[in-house]
Amino acid sequence: MKYALVRFSGIYLFDENIRLVDKKKVEFDAEDILTIKEGKLPNNIKKILPQGVLFLGQRFEDFRTEDNVGKIRKALGQIRDEDFITVQPQFVRAAIRDISRSVTRDLIIIQAISMLDDLNKIINLMMERFREWYELYLPELSQMIDDHEKFVKTVSGKTREELMKEYGIEDTMGGDLTEMDIEMLNNISKRILELYRLREDLRKYIEKLMEEVAPNVKAIAGPTVGARLIALAGGLKELAMLPASTIQVLGAEKALFRHLRKGTPPPKHGVLFNHPMVQKLPKKRRGAMARTLAAKISIAAKVDAFTPGKFIADRLQKELEERFRQLKEGIKGKTK
Amino acid sequence: MKFRPIRENPHIYTDGRRLYTKNLIPGQKVYGERIIREKGEEYREWIVNRSKLAAAIKKRIKEVPIKPGDKILYLGIAAGTTASHISDIIGWDGVIFGIDVAPRIMRELIPIVKDRKNIIPILEDASKPDKYLHIVSRVDLVYEDVAQPHQVDIFIRNIDYYLRGGGYGFLAVKARSIDVTKNPKVIFRDVEKQLREYGFRIIDVVRLDPYHKDHAMFLIQNK
Ligand SMILES: C[S@@+](CC[C@H](N)C(=O)[O-])C[C@H]1O[C@@H](n2cnc3c(N)ncnc32)[C@H](O)[C@@H]1O
Predict the structure, then answer these.
(1) Topology of A105-207 in CATH?
(2) B86 CB under 6 A from ligand 1?
(3) Which of B166, B144, B164, B163 is nearest to B155 (CA)?
């Protein structure tokens, strides 16, 4: 006996010519399936395993593996009469647990940042409608306050007379609304203010989550930009595995495809465009800043994903600031 | 009779326009398809826009080598849209090993396979075929639809491990997931060359337009 193969129906043993010589039946449950997935041998199999066998293709802790595909094929070819339908429910159970285990905290970040983006769109949509509606009542004020949030805060709970006095509006082009009309406007403004508060709560929540899950990325990219990068990559590990050049243009996929297909200039930045260090530079230097930033974020993501608890962002931050200063002063240099 | 088998496969039916399979799990809908009852049988519509295999059949791929009792390795099973029809065809004596790497989409497969016990769900990466050596057996057919840049390598590796001699392989190729800059035609020719050089017999290649834009289905037979 030389080779072994663990199957849900038992353990199969083969000689050096991959001829099946023995089969020991084992009962398999969902737990055993997950144990095997983790590269460990379930106890009930360990107990009956002969000494010194080589596993065919399978990798288990403390055991050696034979990777020759021809041998694996030959072994599989001799396995027959397995009852798949009967064990199927065990595999379903294992898959359910597997799916459940795959819910990591970075997935919550992805949902939270997506909700924040949705909320921004919703608030904007509602504010545009609210303003238009409110302009039937007091158009002059809407023209005086451009900022949506400030506008809704200002009008909420106040009468037209109060507002006219406060803002020195003598005459209005607004119509005479009834009590019922005004009440509805007030009702809406209150709800929109609640949405603004929800947005604030979400921001703080994302900040906390980022601190917990990806403190290095958070320190370098900032909580929202960092969260967006994680979302675009599909997860923290996924972000950590991307090349820095891809991180640099995450969020600019459309421009990137246009570049690849039609040869238009490549994008210089995606969501990194929103990073303050990129924003504060003149247009011509932003690409260079985004490149350095992406390189540092890539390092930060690797640390967060693979050595949680380690903090190196202060060092990265210093290097970034240095590069920022160079670019600001117009000294061209190589990315560190 | 309203439903008759298609020429390429006696277990796939048509009413002259649409494709159907006989529902293995009466009453179960998988993706919002129509179910039509006739003479005590339930026919489940196989929507060409939703399934690349259905589109390939509609575009008259030469053979559809799937029969009752077959064992099938399905790479990229997703929510089971196509797999459910294969499951109808192979019946209770067959089995589908359904591999997918994404937990998110597997979540949608689970409720379906609770009744459809001839599908075994396996949350793994198909580029590591040794990860399912404890369950996947030698199979009659490998079906792959993973929409990944290295999809041909994944196909070949899995065939090496699991496909019996003379067994078949369906490979759905999405040109854009291999290279966005190249003309799909060029990509399909490269794929065909790669498959031929590996020693497979190419039975047929059909473009899936207009049902699936810039997709092609390859049907091969193993040595
Ligand atoms: C286009 S969908 C398949 C649709 C399905 N074949 C149907 O017709 O119902 C592609 C699937 O491949 C899966 N996939 C991608 N890469 C994979 C890999 N390396 N291993 C396993 N599954 C993969 C994706 O998660 C996705 O669910």
Answers:
(1) Helix Hairpins (1.10.287)
(2) no
(3) B144
Residue pair A23/A13 in contact by the 8 Å Cβ criterion: yes
Predicted structure pTM score: 0.89
| Residue extent(s) of CATH 3.30.420 domains in chain A | 3-101
The pLDDT confidence band at residue A257, using thresholds 50, 70 and 90, is confident
Q: How far apart are CA A112 and CA A204, in angstroms?
A: 11
For the segment B70-125, what is each residue's pLDDT rounded down to a tens digit? 999 999 999 999 999 999 999 999 999 999 999 999 999 999 999 999 999 999 99
CATH 3.40.50.150 for domain B50-221, yes or no, is: yes
Tens of pLDDT, residue by residue over B176-213, are 999 888 999 999 999 999 999 999 999 999 999 999 99
Q: What is the ipTM of this complex?
A: 0.95
Superfamily of domain A214-335: Nop domain (1.10.246.90)
C-beta of B52 in contact with ligand 1 (< 6 A): yes
Question: Does A91 contact B137 at a Cβ distance shorter than 8 Å?
Answer: no
Chain B: residue nearest A262 by CA?
A: B181
pLDDT in tens, A153-193: 999 989 999 999 999 999 999 999 999 999 999 999 999 99
B4-48 CATH fold: Phosphorylase Kinase; domain 1 (3.30.200)
Distance CA A180, CA A174 (A): 16
Q: Are the beta carbons of A281 and A299 closer than 8 angstroms?
A: no
Spatial CA neighbour of B132 closest among B83, B86, B97: B97
Partner-chain contact A88 B122, CB within 8 Å: no
Among B145, B173, B174, name the best residue to mutate to test ligand 1's pocket (greatest count of ligand atoms within 8 A of Cβ).
B145
